[in-house]
Structures are given as structure tokens and as C-alpha cells.
């Protein structure tokens, strides 16, 4: 609300351009917003098919750094096609288990991914037979795929070898030769040929994608079929040329479109998707639904955090703690932990007594009770709530002990873990750190009463097991740094049932445009989904704690923060009536929900 008021009251005629510059220069938030677009396009995700066999790898760290530094598109393409370890995941195809057909071998996947995402051409059809949707031939597809093979591939038509060996070639050989003795040399040549200024296909394709992202409809549709006729060829050519002249600066292109009169026109609603595709006439940006990430981030910012752990944290404090639990076995096989209590111990030594400050962090799935040198420090029963305790007065020079009672709840085998970190700062500013790791001991048998004491004999206890982080991710609050309330941006979160229901793809393949139409699953999730309901319940509690029982203030604030405007007299009357004079959690939750599912909030106007 404050930012809106500041903008409205600003008399500078260039205030809109200055605001766009400010947002584009906010590199952290710019990156975390656009990361979803690039993850979809480059089929990059945090888990999924191929990770188990290591036939697929993330490019997240490389991509995040690239976007944050606003590297040129030329550099991005070059590093994708001639990659190092950090960026090779894009052309490194999924190694499917078992027998796959010839059109799905990893080299052909590389050709298909590059063709679709960077050039807007369908190589998939031509990788089985001469294409039915373009003039691309089977031989061209295999020639392109052979760039990524150790040696030229034999052509297979409809999965049957035809006794012909492909000649290594780019899809558009007139741009230059990519033949070379080694794979490394071929990739270098491909990266150089691809970014030649004569390759207008590359620059028109990304220009069309960014236009579609911001306006809602591409200059060429579909965005993966760049052979189709643009509704305005001159506009596409001019924007692509301007993009090249800028040094292929993506932020420059975004700003160029966002400062245009075309972008600032009132939004237009189309009754059917067919109207957008056939006989299209540009009238203004298309009304679009919020993406799964945008919807989640808005709720996290205004109502309550939707996610508290991420798959990738660009600003994480490097804490090498492992999620440990008692090593559960079924005969000789390691299994998921059974429900019940498990007990953990760690003895350590401090060489100094002059402790300035000592702190611990702890997270447990499902519950814990923490003891230091026999004294209870704290308890917790929610793994997302990091326990943070000052233990300065509990430590001594010499031997010390940590003891934790962990409780895995539920009725069947399920993931369980303890995550622990300790930091001791001495008067000479030197530090001692200790983390949960494989040197800790545990037991599944109820120990004697003195098990939390330093002198307890734990020689019969067994070494713990590292149960990984796949089930929990990285808690943003698991840090010794002082910080404000942490909110996990959805673009950094591993695929989640809520995100999936709202349309985030699995990214096993290139996804250049998400489905805009609402589904029955989305309707059910937003009306009575248990996860969404839980987030709104937490939010209602927070709002009551912050704004008390002032129904007028709750209503006004909700509209200003979610819709950017004051409620009308009718809206205020309805909501205040719903809240009453002493609103409870359920009433506040209902009012928040009613605004979140309103078309005004759900759609980008």
C-alpha cells in the first residue's frame, strides 16, 4: 500500500520508467521470479526422472547466477550448448531405465530440447520419420543429434534401422559447419554457429517468448512453431533487431516491451482459446491467471508462509548438518523409520572455558526434547519450526554431552529425522562448531533415567544413519544469522502437490507455455484442499494477533494488500458483517479465502 501511494503521488513524468528500472535492478527478486520461466523452458527441476540413475542433472546454480548477473542471451546459449559441469544438464538427456526407442536416446533428446526451446522448431516428429508438421526430414534430425554423439548415428525410421549413417550437421548448415573430430570440438562449434547474427531464428524465438510472457499471446503462435506466420512480422523483426543491438540484454528487451504503449493498453478478455489463435487481432494484453508460483508468493507475502523449505537457497549459510535418525532395519535391509521414540547422544570436548556465546539450532520430524549436559533446553513438535536456544551457561571446559529424545509420529513407516547445529564463540573470537552427522549414536530402546547425563554409558548404542534431505529440503530459518521472517519463494521449492495442482509442470520435457485453463483439480484444491486450508488457518491466526478484533482494519488492510485498493461500501458491509465485532480464526480465514479466490485477485489485469 505504501508503494502504491508513493507512486500515485509522484509527479515525475518518468515515474513509470523509473519504477520499471527499480524492479529490474532488484536482481534477487527479478531472478527468483523469472527462474520459473527458465526452469520450464530448459526442463530444469530439483528432482524427477533421471536423477536416480544420474542421467540428469540440475543447472540451478548456474542458471540462478546467470540471471542474477544478467548475462547476455548469447552467453547463456553458448554456455548451454558448450557446457561445463554446472550447465550440462540442459543437453544431457534423461537416461531411461531399460530399452527405449531410437527417438528417445540421449543425443536425440538434446537435439529435440535445443530445437524446441531455442529455435522454435519441432525436432521430435522428425526424429522418428520425416516431419508431418514442418519440412524437417529424418536425416536432418539425425544429423543434428549426431553433434552430441561420440560418433555419427545410424538413422532409424519408426524405430527400425535403415542402414544409413547420418552426416554431422546443424539444422541450418548455411550458418556454418559443426563437423569436428571430438564431441567437445563439435559443441564449441555449435555454440559459435548458434549465436551468429545471421541466425535470426534464435533471436526471434526468444523475443517471441518474452512478448508472449508479458502480453499473453505470442506474435507467432504457437511459440514452439516459429515457421508459423506472425500477426505482425515487422514488429517481431524490429524487436529482435533491437534485442541484438542491445548486446542480447534480456532486461533491455523486457523494459522495451513494458514501456511500450502496447503493454500499457487495457487488458483484453477472450471468450475462447480459439479466438486467440485464429484470426487474431491485437487489441491489448490478454487477461491471464496468476501462475502457481505467483499465487503462492502472494499468499506467503501477505497472509502466511506457504513454504518454509526450499530445494535451492542462493543465500544459505553453509551449515553441513545432516538429517539423522536411528538406523532402522528390517532384517538386513535399511527401511523407513517406524513410529515411536528414538534416543540420540553426542559427547564433545571444549578446550576453553571463556565462552562469549553459544547457540544451537534444531529441527525434528516429528518431535524432540533437547538436553545439554543433563538439563532440558527445549521441545518442539513441528519440523518447520526451527528451535533456537542460547546454551552459553550450560557448557563447560572439557567434556560435554548432547542428548535428544526424538519421536516419529504416525501409524506406519514414514520419514523421520533430527537436524542439529551448535556454534560456540569464545572471547578471543574463535569458534567451535558441531553438527548432526554420522558420529552420533542412537538407540530404539528406552534407556535408563540418567541417559541425558555426560557420564552415561552409551557403548551399546549404534551409529545413526543419514536419511538425506529429499523429504525436507533446506529450511530457510535454519541459520545462525539474524533475519526477519523468512518466506520461501515458490520458484525455489521442489515440486509440491499444491504447485502441481495449480499448474506447475514436472519439467520432464521442455514446457514453453503452461495451460491457462482452470481445472477441476484446481477448483477442489482451492475450495477444500487440506494444505491450502492449513496455510489460511495460520494466516488467520497471524492477522488476529496483529490487527486484533478490528473488523474495519482487517477488511481495509486485506483489500489494500491483496487488491491494491480500498473495498467498496458494499464489499466492506458484507465482509464486516461476516467478521462481526469479535472475529474468530474461522471467520477471518473465510474472509481471506473469499478475496484470494476472487477473479480480481486470480487474474492479471
What does this structure look like?
- The chain is an alpha+beta fold.
- It contains 21 helices and 20 strands.
- The strands form seven sheets. A six-stranded antiparallel beta sheet has the order 11-10-13-8-16-17, with no helix packed on it.
- Helix 16 (520-528) crosses helix 17 (530-547).
- The longest helix has 18 residues, at 530-547.
- The protein is globular.
- It starts with a helix and ends with a strand.
- The mean pLDDT is 94.
Summarize the structure.
This protein is an alpha+beta fold and 605 residues long.
Structural class: alpha+beta
Spans where pLDDT lies below 50 across 5 or more residues: none
Q: Give, in spatial order, the strands making up the sheet with the most strands.
A: 11-10-13-8-16-17
Give the % helix.
25-40%
Strand content: 15-25%
Radius of gyration: 28 Å
Measured between the Cα atoms of the first and last residue, the distance is: 18 Å
Let me know the number of strands: 20
Main pleated-sheet profile: 6 strands, antiparallel
Mean pLDDT score: 94
SS element count, helices: 21
> Outline, from the CA principal axes?
globular
Record keyword descriptors for this entry.
605 residues, alpha+beta, 6-stranded antiparallel beta sheet, 4-stranded antiparallel beta sheet, 21 helices, 20 strands, 36% helix
Topology:
Blueprint: H1 2-9, H2 15-25, H3 27-41, H4 60-68, H5 73-81, H6 106-119, H7 138-145, E1 154-157, E2 160-165, H8 183-194, H9 200-215, H10 233-245, H11 250-258, H12 261-264, H13 273-277, E3 288-289, H14 292-302, E4 309-310, E5 324-325, E6 329-330, E7 333-334, E8 340-350, E9 355-365, E10 367-372, E11 375-380, E12 387-390, E13 398-408, E14 417-426, E15 431-435, E16 441-443, E17 462-463, E18 465-466, E19 474-475, H15 497-501, H16 520-528, H17 530-547, H18 551-563, H19 569-579, H20 585-596, H21 599-602, E20 603-604
Antiparallel strand pairs: 1-2, 3-20, 4-19, 5-18, 6-7, 8-13, 8-16, 9-12, 9-14, 10-11, 10-13, 14-15, 16-17
